[in-house]
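S2.1 Query sequence (Pirin)
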Amino acid sequence: MSNLEVEPAELLCDDDTAPRFQLLEPREVPLGGPRAMTVRRTLPRRERSLIGAWCFLDHYGPDDITERDAGMVVPPHPHTGLQTVSWLFEGEIEHRDSTGAHQMVRPGELNLMTAGSGIQHSEISTPATARLHGAQLWVALPDSDRHTAPFFEHSEPVPTKLGDATVRVFIGELPGLADHRAHARTFTPLLGAQLDLPAGSVVDVALDPTFEHGVLVDHGTATLDDDHVVDAAQLGYLAPGADVVRIEASGDAPLRILLIGGTPLGESIVMWWNFIGRDHDEIVAFREQWQGDVIADADRGGRFGHVDGYDGAALPAPALPGIRLKPRE
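Output structure tokens follow.
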């Protein structure tokens, strides 16, 4: 998914010392024009930029799109230096990208797009979709791999039981569930999983103690380690060091969460619009190449290639701020 903000803020993200637990509140962000879809963004925030290499998390829906003109229509747009993870709970989205990939995004299935040196893609909700509900996440690539050639992967994780919980591991693996390790390619140690628990149930989930973790609550209320309450749309951060987390579906509703994690990235990144780079000049160059090769000359492609099968123009980049991109204090 593109960041469609008209004036996206520049963000320099680094690994800072944090408390053992943080509760991150979502920020509502309208994507697009007057009939925009609103997403709830919990990464990046001023309090926390990264969880492992996870650097961006938008959570949306359930949205009734039957009254909208076209549902989700995100024209071709660029990415650099990252992987996009598309994960749906409801609905269907058609994905096309400049590697030639053409794939439907459906609930419980992983679409992983590695932008590497540069890619462009489009996303459109299908005509049969009445409700959209899901999450879009980005993973920052380490400096050693961020110029890799772009590629696309699709997989269908097999659900398994962990106590009363149903688990779908779509990135990496959970300790104790090695037989259900995801096969999608990653460039740093990562975890991504959906857990569903009946109301009132409790599950102890083994963790890699070298990872930091995040618990995004999609539905219900989670109580972590008998102490930390995370409500729907909130993101709970767990610092490295723990080898298990107790998750309770507190309240009267069943619980659905996304559990993400990874080893701290250990690198600073600058993230602006849909680009991840390492400094101001690199971001400027990415934008100039997008505007020159794709927006001004759609047949040239250049770094970002061309999306076949999309009927419409690519998305122009917003204007850069009038100052050099720099760290937020």
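The chain has a mean pLDDT of 92. DSSP finds one helix and 25 strands in the chain.
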